[in-house]
Write a structure and sequence with these properties.
By secondary structure, this protein is α+β, with helices and mostly antiparallel strands. It is built from 23 helices and 22 strands. The strands form five sheets. Strands 12-13-14-15-22-19-18-17 form an eight-stranded antiparallel sheet. The chain has a five-stranded antiparallel sheet with strand order 4-5-6-7-10, with no helix packed on it. It has a four-stranded antiparallel sheet with strand order 11-16-21-20, with no helix packed on it.
Length: about 800
C-alpha cells in the first residue's frame, strides 16, 4: 500500500468502511480509551476540534512532523520517578499502561512483543528509571494525616471535577469521562503521593494535574484517603546490567520523544511519518495497531483525529483556540462560557460555600463568558499565575495550572472578548481610569468630584443602597452576608463591564440575588446625586478607584490591630506598601523585623523596634504597615543569570497609578522567578522557597547573635541541576566599600560570605550605585550567607 493521503473519493470510502466496522464492534480495542475529562462535558467542539485536542493530549507531534502541537501536553518528568513509584507498578505500567491505569494517555509501545519479551523489556526500562534517582537525603518530618479530612477535601475542593466521587466505602461511583484513581494505592511509594499532591507541576509541568493549593497537612490527609493504609517502603535497588539494557530500550522505543532525560539526546527523533505521508487508516489509527503505539482509541476518537488530520491546513481561530483550551484543561467542568460548560447535575451537590445565603454565586465558580472584557489583564494574570483569590467563602479552589498549560490564554481572552465603550454620556471630571491631576481640575469639577464621592459613600452605606450589608468593604467584614470585597472591584474589573453589570446584574449572572438598583436605567435612590443613574454608577467607580484611602461608608468600622512579638518569631502575610500585594513580614524576639516581597523575590525592608500594625482594608490576612522607620531595599528581582556583569539589571515596572495598570504584569516570571511557598522550623522561623530559572532557592533569615541586637543573618541554600553562575543584587543607593566583602549605606552595613562583588553605577540614576554579588555555584547544593546590621 502506498504512503501518503489517498484521493478524496477513495479515502472517504475507506474511512466509511473503517467507521462502520468500529460501530459494529463497539470500539477498536477492549481496553478503556484515553480519557480527556473535558471531552465528556458539555463542550462546544466539532469533530475536527475534538481531533485537535486529542492530537495535543496524545502528543502526536512528538513523532509526526507537521502535526499541530500548538497546545501539546508535556509528558511527566521521569528523572526521579524511581523515588515516587513502586517498582512493580512501574514495570507493569510500562508493559501495559491501559491495564494498570485505565484511561491513561500513555500508549502501549510493546504490544507487538511477545508476553515474555514485553515483561523483560519493561523490567529493564524500570531498572533504568530506578537508577536515575538521586542519593536519598534527609526527608522532612511527615505531616499529620487524617483520612477523614482527606475525604472532605477530595469531595469539596474540586477534585471531583476530573475524578469520580466515592461512596462511604471508598468505591468510585462514576467512570464515564472520569480519570480513575483506582490504581493509586498500588502506584506510589510511602509518602510520595503526598509530595506529589503538594507540588504536582514539579513532576507534571503540563498542569493536567493542577496544583490545588494544598498545605502539607492537607496533602498528607488527601493521600491517606486515596491510598488507605500507608504503603510499605520500597526496597528495590536497580540492577546495573538490566539498567543498561533498559537505557538501550528507552532509546530504541523512542521514549525520549515524550520523556526527555538529562543523559538522553534532547532532540528526540520523530519515529513516525510526517503529516504529508500519513495514511489515516494505518499506524496508530488502524483497527488493531501492531508495530505502532497503541492508544486503545475508541471509534469516535479515531474518527475525530482523522477529521483533524484531513483539514490540518486550516488553523483554528482565536475564539476556537479558547474553546479547545478550556476543554483540554477541563475548565468547563466548573465554569460556563457562552452556552457551554458548567457544573454537571451529578456533581452540583459537591460545590459548597460558607456563605450559603449568597446563593449559587457563592458556591459555583464564576462564568468565563466575556472574561477578557471583564477582568483587567494584570488581574487575570494574578488569578491564573499568582493564585490571587477574592472568594474566600467558596469551598471549591481555583487550580494552579502553571505556565505551560496556560501559555497565551490571557492574551486570547483579551483578543476575543469585547464589550465596546460605555454608551452612557460622561458626567463630571476625568474618569478614574484616565490620568488626571487634581490641581488641573477646575473648581467646578473639584466640587463635583467631592459631591460624587459623598454620594457614593451614601450609596454604599446603610443610608443608601446598603451594599455593605452583603459585601465586605476594604477588608472589613459585613455584618450580614460576607460577599466579595467591594474594594477589589477597581483592581479587578474593566470599567465597561462594571457599568453594564451594575445596570443589570442578572444579565451577567442569571439568578443572582443582587438586586437591580437601576431597572430600565432609572435609579431607585432618587435623593442621592439627584437620582442620576449615570452619575451614581460613575461615582461608585470613582470611589472604588481610591483603594485603601477610600472613606468608610456609614455603618462600617475597622480598627487596626498591633501585632506584638514576645519570645517567638511572628510571621504575617498580606498586602503592604513596601512589599507588594504578596508581602511577608517576620518579627523576631529582640525587635528586629523584615518584610519580604514574594511577588518579586526580594527582601523589601528591615527595621528595629515594634513589629507591624494590621488592618483589614483588603482581601486576605490584612494589610500590614511596619511600626517605625524602615530601611528599604531594592524591590526588583534579586537573583538573575546575567550574560555578563555589564548587562543592566531589569527593574520592576512602575505602576500607572491612575489606571492601576502594570505595564509588565509578568515581570518576575519573565526573569525566571517563581515563589514556591514557605515552611516553619520548630522555632517558628520561616524558610522561603522560590526559583530562579532551574535553580531552587531556600531563603532563611534569623537574628545573628554574634553581631549584636540589630543584625540578621540571611542564609541561602541553592540547589542547581548543573554548575552555574548567579548574580545577587544586594543593595542600591549611596554605597561605600569597606572591604571586598563588606559594604555600607548610611543606614545599613552588609557582609557577604563569598562571591565576587561588583559595585557599579545604576543606569539613569545619578549618584546611585548598585551592588551585585557574582556567585559561582556547583552542581547540587551550596550555601551563601549575607549579614545585615542596622546602623544607629
Amino acid at each position: 500500500m502506498r504512503s501518503g493521503f489517498l484521493s478524496p473519493s477513495h479515502r472517504s470510502k475507506r474511512l466509511f468502511v473503517a467507521f462502520l466496522y468500529a460501530v459494529c464492534v463497539g470500539a477498536l480495542s477492549a481496553a478503556e480509551p484515553p480519557v480527556v475529562p473535558g471531552l465528556d462535558h458539555k463542550h462546544p467542539l466539532n469533530d475536527r476540534q475534538v481531533g485537535n485536542v486529542l492530537l495535543n493530549e496524545l502528543r502526536c507531534a512528538s513523532c509526526h512532523e507537521g502535526v499541530s502541537g500548538t497546545d501539546m501536553k508535556s509528558a511527566p518528568d521521569l528523572k526521579r520517578v524511581g523515588e515516587r513509584l513502586k517498582f512493580d507498578y512501574l514495570q507493569k505500567f510500562i508493559a501495559d499502561p491501559a491495564a494498570m491505569h485505565p484511561g491513561s494517555t500513555m500508549p502501549s509501545l510493546l504490544a507487538a512483543e511477545s508476553e515474555e519479551s514485553r515483561k523483560g523489556i519493561s523490567e529493564s526500562i524500570a531498572h533504568y528509571l530506578l537508577s536515575l534517582q538521586a542519593p536519598v537525603g534527609p526527608k522532612e518530618k511527615a505531616a499529620k494525616a487524617d483520612a477523614s479530612v482527606g475525604r472532605s477535601l477530595f469531595h469539596g475542593i474540586g477534585c471531583i471535577a476530573c475524578h469520580s466521587p466515592r461512596d462511604e466505602s471508598g468505591k468510585e461511583t462514576s467512570t464515564s469521562g472520569d480519570l480513575s484513581l483506582s490504581h493509586v494505592p498500588a502506584k506510589f511509594q510511602a509518602g510520595a503521593l503526598a509530595e506529589f499532591l503538594l507540588d504536582p507541576l514539579k513532576v507534571r509541568p503540563s498542569g493536567r494535574m493542577p496544583d490545588m493549593n494544598l498545605s502539607r497537612e492537607e496533602a498528607a490527609s488527601l493521600a491517606s484517603y486515596l491510598t488507605g493504609d500507608a504503603p510499605a517502603p520500597e526496597t528495590q535497588t536497580p540492577d546495573a546490567g538490566k539498567a543498561a539494557a533498559g537505557k538501550a530500550a528507552f532509546k530504541k522505543f523512542n521514549c525520549s520523544s515524550c520523556h526527555q532525560l538529562d543523559d538522553q539526546d534532547r532532540a528526540a527523533v520523530r519515529s513516525g511519518p510526517p503529516l504529508g505521508k500519513l495514511d489515516p487508516l494505518r499506524g496508530c489509527l488502524s483497527e488493531q495497531p501492531k508495530t505502532a503505539p497503541n492508544f486503545h482509541l475508541s471509534a469516535s476518537q479515531v474518527k475525530s483525529i482523522r477529521s483533524a488530520l484531513a483539514d490540518s491546513a486550516t488553523p483554528p481561530s482565536s475564539a476556537d483556540r479558547i474553546k479547545m483550551r478550556l476543554t483540554q484543561l477541563n475548565c468547563i467542568s466548573c465554569h460556563v462560557r457562552d452556552d457551554y460548560g458548567g457544573v454537571a447535575a451529578d456533581r452540583d451537590s459537591f460545590f459548597h460555600s460558607s456563605e450559603a445565603a449568597l446563593g449559587n454565586e457563592a458556591r459555583i465558580p464564576p462564568p468565563l463568558t466575556q472574561i477578557g472584557a471583564k477582568l483587567r489583564p494584570e488581574w487575570l494574570n494574578r488569578v491564573l499565575y499568582d493564585r490571587e483569590r477574592v472568594r474566600p467563602y467558596m469551598a471549591t479552589r481555583m487550580p494552579h495550572y502553571g505556565e505551560i498549560a496556560l501559555k497565551d490564554l490571557p492574551a486570547l481572552f483579551a483578543e476575543v472578548d469585547h464589550l465596546g465603550p460605555i454608551a452612557a454620556p460622561k458626567h463630571g471630571p476625568a474618569d478614574p481610569d484616565e490620568p488626571s491631576d487634581p490641581d488641573d481640575l477646575s473648581a467646578q469639577d473639584r466640587n463635583l468630584r467631592n459631591t460624587m464621592r459623598t454620594g457614593a459613600q451614601q450609596l454604599l452605606g446603610d443610608t443608601g443602597l446598603n451594599c455593605i450589608s452583603c459585601h465586605n468593604f476594604n477588608g472589613t467584614e459585613s455584618q450580614g452576608m460576607k460577599g466579595l470585597d467591594l474594594m477589589t472591584s477597581f483592581q479587578r474589573l474593566q470599567p465597561e463591564w462594571f457599568d453594564r453589570y451594575m445596570r443589570n446584574p442578572a444579565a451577567f449572572r442569571p439568578g443572582i440575588i443582587m438586586p437591580n438598583y437601576w431597572p430600565d436605567g432609572k435609579a431607585t435612590q432618587t435623593t442621592i446625586l439627584d437620582g442620576n443613574t449615570d452619575l451614581q454608577i460613575k461615582a461608585l467607580w470613582d470611589t472604588l478607584s481610591l483603594g485603601r484611602s477610600a472613606r468608610d461608608p456609614s455603618g462600617l468600622r475597622s480598627p487596626d490591630i498591633k501585632l506584638v512579638v514576645t519570645d517567638k518569631p511572628v510571621m504575617h502575610r498580606g498586602r503592604s506598601r513596601i512589599a507588594s500585594f504578596r508581602g511577608v513580614a517576620v518579627g523576631f524576639p529582640g525587635g528586629t523585623s523584615l518584610a519580604f516581597n514574594a511577588q518579586n523575590g526580594s527582601l523589601a525592608a528591615l527595621w528595629k523596634g515594634e513589629f507591624v500594625n494590621v488592618n483589614w482594608k483588603s482581601q486576605g490576612a490584612g494589610d500590614f504597615t511596619p511600626i517605625g522607620k524602615t530601611v528599604n531595599l531594592p524591590p526588583d528581582v534579586a537573583f538573575l543569570q546575567l550574560k555578563d556583569e555589564k548587562q543592566p539589571w531589569p527593574l520592576m515596572p512602575v505602576l500607572d497609578k491612575p489606571k492601576m495598570a502594570n505595564p509588565d504584569p509578568l515581570y518576575p516570571r519573565q526573569h525566571g522567578y517563581a515563589f514556591a511557598g514557605y515552611s516553619l522550623d520548630d522555632a517558628l522561623i520561616p524558610t522561603l522557597s522560590y526559583r530562579c530559572g532551574d535553580l531552587s532557592i531556600e531563603d532563611k533569615s534569623a537574628p545573628n547573635s554574634t553581631a549584636g541586637g540589630n543584625a540578621l543573618r540571611r542564609t541561602f541554600k541553592f540547589t542547581s541541576p548543573k554548575a552555574d553562575t548567579l548574580y545577587f543584587r544586594a543593595l542600591t543607593g549611596k554605597i561605600e566599600s569597606e572591604s571586598a566583602m563588606i559594604f555600607k549605606t548610611p543606614q545599613l552595613r552588609l557582609s557577604v560570605s563569598q562571591g565576587q562583588s561588583i559595585l557599579r553605577p545604576m543606569a539613569g540614576r545619578e549618584g546611585v550605585q548598585e551592588l551585585l554579588i557574582k556567585l559561582t555555584l556547583p552542581k547540587g547544593t551550596s550555601t551563601f550567607t549575607v549579614d545585615y546590621a542596622l546602623l544607629p
